[in-house]
Amino acid sequence: MEFIKVSQEHAPHVALIQLNRPKELNALNLQLMTELSQALESMDKDDNVRVIILTGNEKAFAAGADISQLANKTSIEMYKMDLFNIWKQISGTKKPIIAAVSGFALGGGCELAMSCDMIVASETAQFAQPEIKIGVMPGAGGTQRLTKAVGKAKAMELVLTGKFINAEEALKYQLINTIVPVEVYLKEATKLANEVAAMPPLAVQMAKESINKSFEVSLEEGLYLERKNYNSLYSSEDQKEGMNAFLEKRKPNFKGQ
Asked: Does domain 201-247 correspond to CATH entry 2.40.70?
């Protein structure tokens, strides 16, 4: 991996992926996105990994797409590049992903953060979809995920003007989970990851699937999937362990089985 750093020993059952193009403010080129997709696919298959943290550095989570790769592309070249299939793979990761965001999360960087399941932001975090300023529009979920997070009116304002919002505004609009000092933003994300990693992995993954599906289907269809996943968990060893531990007043030992 050239443009990401991966640690699967960051914390028990927690893997860390760090975007690693610091000179370019972690601009998202095709190679970085391919490496990220491959890393997430590998972690999804690794039973030792229960939660994934995705981060950049203090200055930038990711300052958007690498415009130098895109400026002279034609629509046919963009189609052949098939970049958005990589984004689909990322958003389809079964295990929960926590974005630890400091500094810029702009354009594709904002979309990448929103593709994650939770966002822990430092006080310096800034979010924006400024694509309109360079003649295009968000193309990796910005018009969809941002609207679902902050509502139509605010999404229209942000997308059509390209204006930035700071961490406090992002929290107000329910785009992020929490704000912490920049010195501890990764530590706070790890704390949250540890809490999730202590839960039964299969239940976590099915709960994530059910929540995400609620944005795509009717209430009745969502309830059907919820009931299906709920019933399925009664075939897991973790369900027996969790309920017996509750009855026996002891701490459960979940194994993801």
From this structure: no
